User: What shape does this take?
Amino acid sequence: MDDKEPVRLSVDEPPSDGRQPSVIEAPSAFAAWSCTVNGKAVALQLPQARRLLDIIREDLGLTGTKRSCEIGRCGACMVLVDGAPVNSCLMMAYQCAGRTLVTIEGIADEDGLHPVQRAFLEEGGYQCGYCTPGMIVSAKALLDAKPNPSSEELEEALSGNLCRCTGYGGILRAVHRAIEEGRGSP
Amino acid sequence: MLLNRLNSGDRWRVRPDGPGKVTGTLAYLTDMDVPGELYALVLRSPHPHARIVSIHTEAARSLPGVAAVLTRADVPGLNRFGIARQDQPVFCEDRTRYVGDAVAAVAAETLALAGRALDLIEVEYEPLPTVDDPEQALMPDAPLLHPEGNILHAKSYRSGDAEAIFGQCAHVVEETYVTTRQMHAYMETEGGLFVPGPDGGLTVYAPTQHGLMDRLQLSRILAMPEGRIRIVSSPIGGSFGGKDELNVQPYGSLLAMATGRPVKIHNSRRESVRSGLKRHPMTIRMKTGTDESGRILAHRVRIVADTGPYATLGAEVLNFATEHVVSAYRFGCVDVESVSVFTNNGMSGEFRGFGGNQAIFALEGQMDRLAEAVGMDPWEFRRLNMKTADEPGPFGQTIARTDGLAKVWAAAAESALWKERAHPDNSENSDIGAMLSSKHDPRRGGGDLPLWKRTGIGAALVMHGAGLGYGIPDPSGGRLALRKDGKIEASFGFEECGQGLIATLEQMLIERFGFAAEDLRIVIGDSDAVPDSGSSTASRATSMMWKSLCLLQPPFTEKLLTEAANCCGLPVQRLRLGPGGIWDRESGERAIGYPALAERLAEPIVCEASTSYPTPDTDVVGAHYLYSYAAVVVKVEIDGLTGRIRVLRQFHAVAAGPVMNPQGYLGQIEGGSSMALGYALLEDAAMSQGQYIANNFDTYLIPTISDLSGPVEVLAIEDLPDDDAHGPRGVGEIGSVGLAAAIASAVRNAAGIFIHRLPIDPALLQEVIPIGELAVMSDGR
Assistant: This one.
C-alpha cells in the first residue's frame, strides 16, 4: 500500500498524437477517508479524487474486483455501494466516503458461499472467471432488490456486465437457479 | 445427447477452479504484486507507417524515479519475435509499420512516473504513405512494407480446371464475401509480473497459450538459455487465440533484466486494442456452378486476407481458410488461390476458428444461393453435395473416418427449428395470415409480431479441422506421478484460459482411473514443472490429454498395483485403483491409501508419455486428419424500424466424439457461438488510415446478456466408428464458426436479402422491409 502514489485519472479520449493516455496528477491533497468495507471500518489518508477501483485493488489489496475497460462499460469492477451496484472505476474517493462498500470478497455468508455464488458454481456460470466477481455482485444486487425479477429486469440488471467466454448461458441458468432457491427460503 | 445439467447426471461437476473464481480469491497473473516492483509502460508508434529519424531518451532517463528506458539498442539477443516467423521487432529500428509498433519501454517507481517518462521520450518520425488496403498493397506501385514484398504467404489448391467447367454448368453463382476485423475482447488485458532471480534467471508470470513457446521466444530476445527462464502462464482471463503470440512479455522481461527488479505491466484496454491481434479481415470471391440437378461441378475461390504488418500466424490462418472454403462438399473441380497481404493496419493473427469463420460464412452463403438458383431446399442441396464418410478431406487427403457430417446434417433436418421453417408457426402470425391473401408470407409480421418485424430460420453446416496440421511439428505428452505427499500428480504443459481444461483433466482422471478428486494434484502452466504438451490451441488439448492418459494408464496402473501388492502381500490381480487408494477386489475394502503407499516408496512412481497430434498422409501443408462437425439452426427476428436482428433461438448439433466434460463442452459451444453472434451482428474493429476507430467497449460492441437471452440447445453426437483410435475431438473452436453463416441464412429467409458482408448492416434491413405498405394495410383493417 503506497499512500504517497499520485492518483491516476484515466483519460479516455485518444490523445491527438496517438500516444498513451496522459497521466494527470491530481492535487496531492491527502485527506482522511473512511468507509465500511465488507463489514469492517477502514480509514485511509488518500487524495479525494482517487478511483475507488484503485483504493480497493491497491490500497486494500482486494483483487477480486477486476480492472478491464476502465470506462464503466464492462462491469468487471462492480462493487456494492450502500447495496447498489457501482462500477468502481467511475467512482472517486469523496463520492463514497462514509458509505458502506461490499466487494466480491464480502459477498459470502459467514458459513460459506452466498446462494448466488453457489448457483454460479453448480450451473457453471463462468469460464475464465475474470468477469465473474462483477457479474455475481450485479446479480446479488438485483436479487436483493427484486427476488423475483422478470426476464426484462434480469437482462437490464446484467447487461452492464460483459462476459466473453460463456455466451451468458451458464450465467442465466445460475441466476434462475438462485431465484428458484430464493423462493424456497424465507 | 442434449447437453444440460440434468442429462449429464453425476458427470456435471463443479470445476476445481470454480470456488476461487466465484469468490474472487483466485489471483490472476495481472493481480500479482511483489514488494519493490517497478511499473512499466511501452511507447508505441503514433503513425501507422513512418521512418524513425531519431530517438532521444535522455530526459526520460534523468527523471527521478525512472529505473530504465529501453530502445532497440538495449536488446541483448534477437530484436524480433513471432511464433512461426520472427519478423516483428521487439523495438522498431528505423521504421514503424502499425500503430501498435513498440519504440521504447519504461520502468519506473510508479505508473504515473512511467507515464511521465514516456511523454519525455522524444521520437522524430517521418510519416510514410499508409498502405491500409490489402488489394492496394498488391499493386505494383504500392510501397514495400518488407524487403521481400507485401505478400506474407500465398496458398493454392487445385483439382482440375474449374474455369473450363463453368460453361457446362446449368447454374453459376458468383459472390464476393467480406468479413471485418474482430477483436478477441478477453476481459483480462495483457499483462503480468517479471521477476529476476538471484542467480541471473527470470520468472515470467504472464498469460500465454504455450508457455514453452514463450520461453523459447524470450530466450532468443534476452540471449539467455531457456533453462534460466521460467514461465508461469495460468490462470488466464480469456485468450481465444489472442494471447498465444508474445505481447508484453518482451518488455517486462527486458526491463526486469535491465533493472534487476521485479516489473509489473498491465495493458490498458486502449493499449490492448491498439497493439493486440485481431481476426483477419478477408475478401473471399467465389464462383460455383452446378448441373441441372444441383450437383456442384466447379468451385473457384480467391481469398485476400489483411494480415497487418507482421507475420505471427498469418500464413497458417490462410492455409486453414484455404482448406475450409472447400470443407465437406464434393466439388467436381476446385480451384482456390489465397494470399495473405501485409498492410499498415492492425496486427491480424490467431483467433478461435482460425480462418474457418470467414471461410464458412462465404461457403455456406454460396450453398444457400446455389440452392435457390437450382430451386432446391437449401438443406437438401447440402446433402446432395456433401461428402460421405469414406471420401477424402478438403485437400484430397485421407482423413479419420467418421459419420459426423451425416449425423449433424440429419440432426438439424430433424430439429424442431428446421421443421418450423418448412411449416412456420401460424399461431404467431395468424392475424396477418387471415387478413392478407394467400400469397403473403406469414413470417412477415402479424399476430403477436408487430407489422414491422419478421422472423426467419436459417442453418449452416461446419467442418472444422483440429491440430496444427500436416507439416508443422505438433508433439504432446504428459506425466503422472505418485508423489511423496501421497498425491497423484498429473502434469501437462497446457494452459487454463477459462475453457475448463483443469476440470476436464480432473474428470478424465476420475472416470478413467477411478481416483477421487481429493487424490489429485493437477500441475499446468509452469514451464519448470510440466512436460512438453504443445500449445493449448487448435482445439487440440482435450484430444492430447486423452491420448496421453491412454498411453499412461497401463504402465502407471501396473506400477501402482505392483508396489501396493508388495506392501500388502496380496497378488496384483486382486488389486485395483480406486478413490483414496488401492482396493482389494475380493474383500471390497481399501488395501492401502495413496499416502501410505507413497510413504513406503523409496522413489516416487513417475510415468511419462509422448505422443503427437495425428496428421494425414499428404504433402499439403496444413491439411488436417481429425475434424469436428457441426450443424447450426437459428431463428432470428428482424426489426424493420431499426434494422436490428435479434437471435431468438439456436440449435447446435456437434459431432466431436465422446464428451469428456459436459459442462465444458456446452460452455465451448454456447460461448463460441456468442462470439459468432457478435461477428455477425455487432463487431467491427474498423480502421481508418491505419488508426483504430474504436478503442474500448463503448464503441466496440460485444454481445451482452440481452443479445443472448434466447434458448440455446446443444446436441452432442458422440458416436465414432468402433475402430476409431483418436477419441474426443476438439470443440474449442467449432462453436464460433457456424452461427454467423446461419444468421445470414435466416436473414435471407426472413427478409429476402442475401448477406455478403459481416457484420450485417442494419440499414440494409431497414430498406428491404416495406413498413409503409404494411402500415397502410394495418390502417385499413
In short: The two ends of chain A are 42 Å apart (CA to CA). The domain at 115-184 of chain A is CATH 1.10.150.120 (DNA polymerase; domain 1). Residues 145 and 152 of chain A are 15 Å apart (CA to CA). Chain A touches chain B through 70 residues (CB under 8 Å).
